[in-house]
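INFO  loader      accepted 1 record
INFO  loader      residues=206
INFO  predictor   begin
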Amino acid sequence: MQDRPKKPKNNRLSLGAIAGIVVAALIIGGGASWLAYRTLTASQTPSAPTSSRGDRPEQPQATEESVQIYWLGDRGQNLELLPVSVSVQKSAKKQEKVEIALKTLLSGQTTSSESTAIPEGTKLLGVTTEQDGVRVNLSQEFTTGGGTASMTGRLGQIIYTATSLEPNGRVWIDVEGKPLELLGEGEGLIVDQPMTRQNFEENFEL
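INFO  predictor   done
INFO  writer      dumping tokens
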């Protein structure tokens, strides 16, 4: 009996298997392509700028500050020194700030609730700020007119305004370039130089 010839093995895949492999490849390839696209676009997207100080916006720096000038207020039988703020450039030198304050004071432009004992026409002839204090030179009008209360008030106005930036500072007052020793005529006020807020309060009463 003769052996029947063996049929060769069929190594071909069926059409269904081939189609399944193709679909799987497309799915896998598509997923890989999508992932690659997402990675590429994410790397190209600009990131939002960050601030080294957190999320708080930058605050504008102030260019002005205040100095005080002193008017007089009525306190019944007595007077009182009333501080009023005046704006000056923060970048200005100390001497310039004091000069602005004193010129504003000498202008005499008060409100209805304030007054000044500084005689009209008094001029600022010069002001210097030094390590030992402030030196103020006034015109002759500063010494004219008024009684004791008026002369005391104007003296306090100059002293307090000149020391607005340094409340414990010292003040020298000159009139027409000469040290002020007596304010007023006859029984005027004796002025010891230099003056400070402390010795004004100790030696004079408004």
